[in-house]
Amino acid sequence: MQPIISIEGIGKTYAGGFTALKSVDLDIKQGEIFALLGPNGAGKTTLISIVCGIVNPTSGRVTADGHDIQRDFRAARSKIGLVPQELSTDSFESVWNTVSFSRGLFGKAPNPEYIEKILRQLSLWEKKDSKIMALSGGMKRRVMIAKALSHEPSILFLDEPTAGVDVELRRDMWEMVRGLRENGVTVILTTHYIEEAEEMADRIGVINHGELVLVEEKHTLMRKLGKKQLTIHLQNPVSDLPAGLGEFALELSDEGNQLVYTFDTQREHTGIAELLRALNQQGIEFKDLHSSESSLEEIFVNLVHQNQNARQQAG
Ligand SMILES: Nc1ncnc2c1ncn2[C@@H]1O[C@H](COP(=O)(O)OP(=O)(O)OP(=O)(O)O)[C@@H](O)[C@H]1O
Fold this sequence. Notes:
The chain is an alpha/beta fold and 315 residues long. Helices cover 34% and strands 28% of the residues. This is ABC transporter ATP-binding protein.
């Protein structure tokens, strides 16, 4: 299937000479929720701004639903809704007018039924006549989403949608994003909250220093890079790793009170049975065992670290 967004060789060097993006290639599939993760300054907002036609790339090409974002800006942009990081609305206008006006900006004929539908979906219906300035921060954020959806886009960008919002609103947002996907809308979100990507995304892209270091299905990513650890609480502490256990990927922790065994979740054979046998043979007694799985957060931190190390070595 044709990707709904195709990003080819996108690079961006800002006027001051800073290169924020280096030749990014990425295809977004129709109907997916794609989470773009990356540390501060990685280039997430720059990439989104280029796809939305707000920032011009230094190199490369983007198409949205087949339309070139630079040559065919209006057609491409009409497919896209953008919820920016910063709230920007006219605070003296009512919610209803703000959202309806935004639809008009895209040259769409008025459709009060549709506006009512999105305001209801976003729990804004009761506030439709309120002035924006009288709304809470969370409500203002909902208005930004309603604005972004006002022209019925098939692609929605959410730049840090839940930064600084309370848990309840975050859950509501997730619910809303899932609802949008059910209606066939493709959603691309940037986030610092790994939990959000873990919860929401079908695919994850990790960007670091302007480079897309990884794009993967979330489940594959977690399976591929996820490690499991078995922590063995020893009966008596040891000062060194027992010599007879050299073949196992073991580390000593908690001042010699614990042995931590790391194994690959993908491998059929974990080696746990052999390890326990070896412990027995060595006469090492343990009082407890527990296993844990690495979270997306650990996977992410490792990736960004690896990328940094590789850069340092190359430089
Ligand atoms: N207009 C600009 N002129 C010069 N440099 C810029 C400009 N906009 C962004 N940058 C720089 O480009 C880099 C990438 O910024 P960008 O906002 O894309 O990162 P980000 O991944 O969205 O970060 P954050 O998570 O903090 O929002 C940063 O180092 C930033 O300082």
